[in-house]
Specification:
The chain is an alpha/beta fold. It is 33% helix and 25% strand. Strands 8, 11, 14, 19 and 20 form a five-stranded parallel beta sheet that branches. Strands 21, 23, 25, 27 and 30 form a five-stranded antiparallel beta sheet that branches. Helix 6 (264-273) crosses helix 9 and helix 16 (526-543) packs antiparallel against helix 17. Keywords: Membrane, Transmembrane, Transmembrane helix.
């Protein structure tokens, strides 16, 4: 009965070990009677086995390995394994203990992957536990309860042999009331790399360390001289704050031998935060940013971290090369944005970090390539494309992993990153057990790769673009252990690209049909590139009229780069909102230069002037504009002697200008007039203004009436003249009579009074106001000069 309770994969409990001695004395008839009385369902078929039998599946007890130190042991080290065991079953586990088992040597990389996928399978537990003293006992584990454990064992006790990767299994054995015999109830396997001596030929390993974020800045800037930038959110401040994702990336990467891969947009955005900036609120109102000190500190730490390190600059905004290749090239002008984003990258990184980066490398999403992606990736000047071995697969049946560089023709090199190493840190790394497993798996893959052949090889590790803080921590732990190991040495990406290619490695770029559908479905649609092209066309038309184009070209150009970013994958709605916001804001600026609406104008003469006002609400002046006034009925109303007239326009910022056009009326009635702004190359600018002109021409009948009136006035004047002449003659005659009377005595004493009365009446007529003439026309013809450019807008 004692032996019948021992099952494969476990060691006997202390009680069972005592029963063995008793069983040896009572092995006769009582044993036979016991066998005869066993029910059919009892585990009698286990009699004679020396180890407990493993249960099937994962087992009711979960075992996690939260720490394994050192990750790469050498001679004389003590390996410490710590973790927790959790009873996830419905029955209490009794007489339990945690022990260590060293599994067989794993000679292949696929074998390591297979072991990782079945790391908790209790059915395949076969190796015995090592010495009893290297275990930890738990008399009782109730359901739902977790208990920690920590076991330390000298390396010598592990009986490790030749160099390679060994399985290290941590198992829990115990019994339940339903199965009252010892059995393996839970297990967790991990990997123990073992190469105590320096390798004769070490693998040269390049590890990319990405500093990339999502798009945070908008195209909007303030009207002040500094052009205060506006951010779409405040999430970047959280990423660069102490403990944030990007803060951890910089702090961890500082002491590692890595190649920094940086999106210049991230540096430009943080640099903008060091001065005044605003953050867009939920209601559309902007609030002042307050994280200048955090931005200053982070940039200073980046400068220190990358000093004397290799820095690879991606095109500004990290454009989605695959989306450009598959849908963007069908839209005219899309590739020009990639070229512009590449050109601005060097200046951005160099001005902020004070190091000269390289822009020779293109990095498609997940390293997935096809011929069209290679063509687009190299169109902006890059001659090296970072691919990945799970899409750039080997077709020659090699038994080892070849070096990264592959000449693919046209002077282009595909730098193929190792897929197993590059994807080792994906997933949730917040759990210590998951992180520890990722570190050990990465090291195991690296060592096995190094042992495949004695040839010198260059291996590249290209992890996910935006690792989380926990993923970055796990990457740093793995890389630190690798650099302290004996089989690998660090290498820059440029050196890896120049390494001697393996002649047996494939150099054929995968066809378009091999591109992963899981990646294709998240690409930017064609409509995204059409919107970018439409916005660019509006921007081009707008900038030609500005006196200071840089205030608009730079923020909008960078925003268009961000609109094509890889970071929008999986966020289609956010991407559409961002691109629409850029176009909408540009439309708002364009509309700040416009014609003022006019109501109906009346002309009451054969010729007159019509004023049209241009308003500029921008902070800068506009020039190189032409205002055209067109008559839709030139037979009735001519403008400038023809159907239209044009005049150049220059308006200072925040001002308006009225332009006057000379018109000639040929007939009575209404004439519709259209005012339209044009750029100097003949492109329409803004909306037209249409208004009616009512012509009231002077006719012949009216002229006769006016002429008759003038004749009557002339006759009246002549009559007054003759009357005054006669009066003067009479007055002279009377004066002569007075002279006679002065001698003979007064003959008419009232004569002086009469003369005084006539003189008073004449003076009164002279002082009387003139009668008004015909009303003046609505628009005066005498002034045809344009007004000045300094008229302030009344707003």
């Amino acid at each position: 009965m004692a032996e019948a309770a021992d099952f494969q994969g476990t060691r006997p409990s202390p009680a069972l070990r005592r029963l063995r001695h008793l069983g040896a004395l009572l092995a006769g008839v009582p044993l036979l009677a016991g066998l005869l009385q066993l029910p059919a369902a009892a585990p009698a078929d286990a009699a004679g086995q020396d180890a407990p039998r493993a249960a099937s599946g994962a087992g009711p007890v979960s075992v996690s390995v939260d720490s394994l130190t050192p990750s790469v042991p050498t001679e004389g080290d003590t390996v410490t394994v710590s973790g927790t065991v959790t009873n996830k079953g419905k029955q209490t586990v009794t007489d339990a203990h945690v022990g260590l088992r060293v599994g067989p040597l794993l000679n292949t990389r696929s074998g390591i992957d297979n072991a990782a996928r079945n790391s908790d399978d209790v059915q395949s537990v076969v190796n015995p536990e090592i010495n009893d003293k290297y275990s930890e006992e738990f008399p009782k584990l109730t359901p739902g309860v977790s208990r920690p454990f920590s076991i330390s064992v000298p390396v010598d006790e592990l009986n490790l042999g030749e160099d390679g990767v060994y399985q290290l299994a941590v198992s829990l054995a115990g019994q339940t009331s339903a199965q009252p015999w010892e059995q393996t109830l839970g297990v967790q396997r991990t990997f123990l790399p073992w190469q105590p001596e320096e390798a004769g030929t070490q693998t040269k390993t390049t590890f990319l360390w990405p500093l990339i974020s999502t798009a945070h800045m908008t195209a909007e800037t303030g009207s002040d001289e500094q052009q205060t930038p506006v951010f779409r959110d405040d999430e970047l401040a959280e990423e660069i704050a102490p403990g944030g994702r990007l803060d951890r990336m910089v702090a961890l990467g500082r002491d590692l031998d890595v190649t920094w891969v940086i999106d210049p947009d991230l540096l430009a955005s943080v640099d903008a935060m060091t001065e005044s900036y605003e953050v867009r609120g939920e209601g559309g109102d902007n609030t002042a940013g307050s994280h200048q000190k955090i931005a200053d500190r982070w940039l200073a730490e980046v400068q220190q971290a990358v000093a004397d390190k290799e820095v690879v600059a991606l095109p500004f905004g990290d454009p989605d090369l695959a989306s450009l290749a598959h849908t963007g090239t069908a839209v005219t002008g899309s590739l020009s944005h990639l070229k512009e984003a590449t050109d601005v990258a060097v200046d951005t990184v160099e001005s902020i970090l004070h190091v000269k980066p390289t822009t020779d490398f293109a990095w498609p999403v997940n390293g997935a390539v096809d011929p069209s992606i290679i063509k687009v990736a190299t169109s902006a000047g890059a001659d090296k494309v970072i691919a990945r071995s799970d899409t750039f697969e080997e077709t020659g049946g090699l038994s080892y992993t070849p070096s990264a560089p592959r000449p693919i023709g046209g002077g282009t090199t595909a730098v193929v990153a190792d897929a197993l190493l590059s994807t080792a840190f994906q997933g949730d790394m917040t759990k210590a057990s998951t992180s520890t497993q990722a570190v050990q798996r990465f090291l195991a893959q690296s060592l096995t790769l190094g042992l495949q052949t004695g040839k010198q090889r260059s291996v590249v590790v290209a992890p996910q673009r935006t690792p989380s803080a926990s993923q970055a921590q796990t990457m740093a732990e793995a890389l630190t252990a690798l650099q302290d190991g004996t089989w690998s040495e660090p290498q820059d990406l440029a050196a890896a690209a120049k390494a001697k290619p393996d002649p047996a490695a494939t150099t054929k770029v995968p066809p378009a049909s091999a591109y992963p559908s899981s990646l294709r479905k998240h690409e930017l649609p064609r409509s995204a590139f059409e919107q970018v092209a439409r916005t660019q066309a509006k921007l081009d038309k707008f900038t030609v009229v500005l006196s200071d184009q840089s205030r608009v070209v730079t923020p909008f150009g960078r925003a268009l780069n961000r609109g094509m970013s890889v970071s929008w994958r999986g966020r289609e709605t956010d991407a559409a909102i961002y691109r629409s916001g850029v176009e909408s804001y540009l439309d708002t600026l364009i509309d700040q230069v416009k014609l003022i609406d006019k109501s109906e104008t009346k002309l009451s003469g054969r010729s007159a002037t019509i004023p049209v006002t241009v308003q500029n609400n921008l902070v800068q002046g506009v020039e190189h504009l032409v205002l055209r006034l067109t008559s839709t009925n030139p037979t009735r109303l001519e403008i400038g002697g023809d159907s239209y007239e044009e005049q150049p326009i220059t308006v200072s910022g925040g001002h308006s200008q009225s332009v006057k056009f000379t018109t000639s009326a040929n007939a009575n009635g209404r004439a519709t007039v259209v005012a339209q702004l044009y750029t100097q190359d003949g492109q329409k600018y803004g909306d037209p203004v249409t208004f009616d002109v009512k012509v009231t021409e002077i006719t012949a009948t009216v002229m006769l009436v006016i002429g008759g009136g003038v004749l009557l006035l002339v006759l009246a004047g002549f009559r007054m003249y003759t009357q005054r002449k006669r009066a003067a003659a009479r007055e002279a005659e009377e004066q002569n009579d007075e002279a006679v009377e002065d001698v003979d005595g007064p003959q008419n004493p009232e004569a002086p009074a009469a003369r005084l009365t006539e003189e008073s009446e004449a003076g009164a007529r002279a002082d009387a106001p003139e009668q008004p003439s015909d009303p003046a026309p609505d628009t005066a013809p005498e002034n045809t000069d344009p007004s000045g450019t300094g008229e302030r807008v009344d707003r």
